[in-house]
Design a protein that fits this description.
This protein is an alpha+beta fold. The chain contains 17 helices and 31 strands. Helix 2 crosses helix 3. The longest helix has 36 residues. It is globular, with a radius of gyration of 28 Å. It starts with a strand and ends with a helix. 39% of the residues are buried.
């Protein structure tokens, strides 16, 4: 009997698709004819019928197990008297027919949300009705309205949540202060970005000594006070249900979708200056070597004595006699103490070998109409690092406190590289002739040693990028296996309960331990489809922990399964928030680059693939593709080991870090693609020799190291002009298989990288 497996359909804009298997094995290819009766995100059962010449499985749909309940967002069109919606997400592959009586108040050209009433069939398109009209495609903020629906980001609080939020007080009341330490006389301060609206954390530091004489231990007393959200958000309440559903705040340019109602996030729980606030405190004694000698947790009431920005603190630390310091003279000594404990904690970071790559994050600056004015790098100064190290210390103490108490909770786990990724990295390091590699059981210090040894090399960016790619993503899980990148045996998230649900759970667990009780994770309502997904992932996760193939997965308790499910839910929604944010940024960058067609810029190769080069522009931090057909007349072969394209005739090489000059040749807003072509001063093909260094003329790399996960340009959105013309000529979505194959998008490139 041929294999039959279940999984989720992942459509492709070219008409074919894949089935992402529940068992985690390789995806199954679905040819265009198999995609006629299914849609992107449907759950199906497929039979593997053959393998292609590369050994990849190809399947045939034998059963549609469950139709996706997610609405489709698209643009309403009328063609030859027929109303239809062209999906914004091209992975759906088919236009949705809209009966005349189901168009509501929508007008042609508007962006709408469609609810399916009839699924697609082998010889019939899907039929739907318009559920919501979002507006015109060029309306300010439309890209955000689309993203929150495309990724099913909850963006409206329930009526019960809003009603409960209204009943909350506007300030701390006397009964709220009972059984709390009074820290209002301690000069705690907040340090955040200029555009921050909610303040999770406040800090204070002072010198301390323990003992006398030569045996005396000197160091610092560091207080990290975190907003006590758990006091106001009761387990299982309407606010708690909505917060769990969101799991995290989602950040877009010019807009934030908060996890909590604004009355809490920007008011009652925000550590605003010169008002009383409830907090949970991690009170630590840190030695001169950066080791936490002792710590304790307790609930408190505080008074923020100042609201600092990172820029302001950096200026004060660099010049304690400057104008910024004079303005804040009462707090200068406290800031110097914070810098002192930071330097101590930095020693500990270096000693344990935590990975520390310098990356550049970008900020999109928009005008009032949502149009991009500029894209600038976010400058990370010493003040950022001071707060970062303080938060890391509090998070480590939280994880240790929970682990020592043997109470279940959510840890932030970052495991080391997989065997496949280790092998790829070893081969690459060998090909570079570096003379350094990683062991069979690599430690973070090995990665940091390679990063330090290569930081001044002309190909440093390429090497650091490969080190980053070899690492796995961090997740939330009750099974603590440490944090590889930070080199901690146990780590969790304690410091941002306003914007992250795992932090809120950690606060509840710590409070329960302090009260010598046990926190019971509530059974929060989860939609049926999401619940089924969680159950399947739990089963798969437990099975993966079995070392002996003949051994049965361990039977977890109901409590253990609840924590496993909470970790999966929070991890998945963290990814959802990241994808939605990147989607909006990609749309804005494409729209921005449409205004710069034909212009030339300097850039650096950020990725080399079999189909071309991805180049990141120096001044704009925007990434685009130089297709392999734009590299000249010779044949270029992709060297996976060296991660470079090499010309067979001339030996010309293009690798990560190679500096090039490009011209913006094409922008596809619908597909989220930006195309470049290489130019030189004579407007010809850039010519390089095999002996050229991968940097500029002086061999130095000037472009910052980019986090590839943050730079991807996803394939999306509306009906393009060629497709509209084809539709007018009578072509339906069923004929998608006849479309010419487009060059791979950055999203497919990312998926390919994950498989590697």
């Amino acid at each position: 009997m041929l294999d039959e497996v279940e999984g989720i359909v992942q459509g492709h804009r070219d008409g074919h698709g894949f089935v992402s298997r529940d068992d985690g094995a390789a995806d199954i290819y679905l040819p265009p004819n198999e995609m006629r009766a299914v849609l992107h995100k449907d759950r199906v059962k497929v039979r593997i019928v053959r393998s292609d010449r590369k050994g990849r499985p190809e399947g045939r749909v034998v059963e549609i197990v469950e139709r996706s309940k997610q609405p489709i967002i698209g643009r309403l069109l009328q063609e030859s008297g027929v109303w239809l919606v062209a999906p914004e997400d091209k992975r759906y592959g088919q236009d949705v027919l809209i009966p005349k009586g189901a168009i509501s108040m929508a007008k042609a050209g508007q962006v709408v949300v469609v609810e399916l009433v009839e699924p697609p069939a082998l010889f019939g398109q899907p039929v739907g009705r318009i559920k919501e009209v979002l507006g015109e495609v060029d309306d300010p903020g439309m890209e955000i309205e689309i993203a929150v629906r495309k990724y099913s980001v909850p963006h409206e609080f329930s009526e019960a949540c809003v009603a409960l939020a209204r009943t909350l007080p506007d300030a701390v009341r006397a009964p709220d202060k009972l059984n709390r330490i009074d820290l209002t006389d301690i000069p705690l301060v907040t340090i955040d970005g200029e555009d921050a609206r909610d303040f999770d954390d406040a800090v204070y530091c002072e010198p301390y000594s323990k003992g006398r004489g030569r045996s005396a231990i000197k160091g610092w007393r560091l207080l990290v006070a975190i907003a006590d959200v758990s006091h106001y958000v009761q387990t299982g309440s309407a606010i708690d249900v909505d917060a769990y559903d969101r799991a995290t705040s989602v950040y877009f340019p010019r807009r934030v979708i908060p996890m909590l109602p604004e009355k809490l996030s920007n008011g009652l729980c925000s550590l605003n200056p010169e008002v009383e606030r409830l907090c949970m405190v991690c009170d630590m004694l840190v030695t001169e070597d950066g080791e936490v000698d002792a710590y304790q947790f307790y609930p408190a009431v505080m008074w923020s004595h100042a609201r600092f920005t990172y820029t302001e603190v950096a200026a004060i630390l660099s010049n304690t006699k400057g104008p910024e310091a004079i303005k804040r003279k009462d707090r200068v000594d406290d800031l110097l103490n914070l810098h002192g404990v930071f330097q101590a904690l930095l020693k500990s970071r270096q000693k344990r070998g935590a990975v520390d790559f310098e990356t550049t994050e970008t900020q999109i600056v928009c005008d009032e109409n949502g149009r991009i004015e500029k894209i600038i790098p976010r400058t990370r100064n010493v003040a950022h690092r001071v707060i970062e190290e303080a938060m890391l210390a509090a998070n480590v103490c939280s994880a240790d406190f929970i682990a020592q108490s043997k109470h279940p909770g959510l840890f932030r786990v970052h495991e080391g590289p997989t065997p496949e990724k280790m092998e790829t990295l070893r081969n690459y390091l060998k090909a570079t002739g570096l003379g350094m590699t990683i062991g069979d059981d690599p430690k973070p210090g090995e990665f940091q040693a390679i990063a330090q040894a290569t930081k001044d090399r002309p190909d440093a960016q390429q090497i650091h990028s490969m080190l980053l790619r070899s690492m796995q993503q961090a997740i939330y899980t009750p099974a603590n296996s440490g944090h590889f990148g930070l080199a901690f045996d146990a780590y969790t998230h304690f410091t941002s309960p306003i914007r992250r649900y795992p932090d809120l759970l950690v606060h509840r667990v710590i409070k329960a331990i302090l009260e010598k009780a046990r926190y019971q994770l509530p059974t929060l309502p989860v939609p049926g489809e999401a619940h089924a997904k969680l159950a399947r992932r739990l089963e798969k996760g437990l099975a993966s922990k079995v070392k002996d193939p003949g051994e049965k997965p361990r039977k977890a308790s109901a409590e253990g399964l609840a924590w496993e499910a909470a970790g999966l839910h929070c991890s998945a929604n963290e990814r959802r928030a990241d994808e939605a944010s990147r989607d909006v940024e990609a749309w804005l960058k494409c729209k921005y680059m449409r205004e710069h067609l034909g212009e030339e810029y300097g850039g650096v190769v950020s990725s080399a693939t079999s189909f071309g080069l991805f180049v990141t522009l120096d001044s704009m931090y925007v990434e685009g593709l130089v297709h392999i057909t734009e590299l000249g007349g010779e044949y270029f072969r992709f060297d996976e080991m060296r991660q470079e394209l090499r010309g067979e005739r001339t030996g010309t090489r293009y690798a990560i870090g190679t500096r090039v000059r490009i011209q913006v040749s094409r922008v596809d807003l619908d597909g989220r693609k930006i195309d470049f072509r290489l130019v030189n001063e004579n407007d010809g093909l850039v010519s390089r020799t095999a002996g050229d260094k991968p940097g500029g003329k002086d061999g130095k790399l000037r472009a910052p190291l980019q986090d590839r996960s943050e730079a991807e340009l996803g394939g999306r959105t509306f009906l393009s002009e060629p497709r509209r013309a084809a539709s007018k000529s009578g072509r339906t979505a069923k004929s998608a298989a006849a479309k010419p194959v487009e060059r791979p998008s950055a999203t497919s490139k990312k998926a390919a990288r994950k498989k590697r």
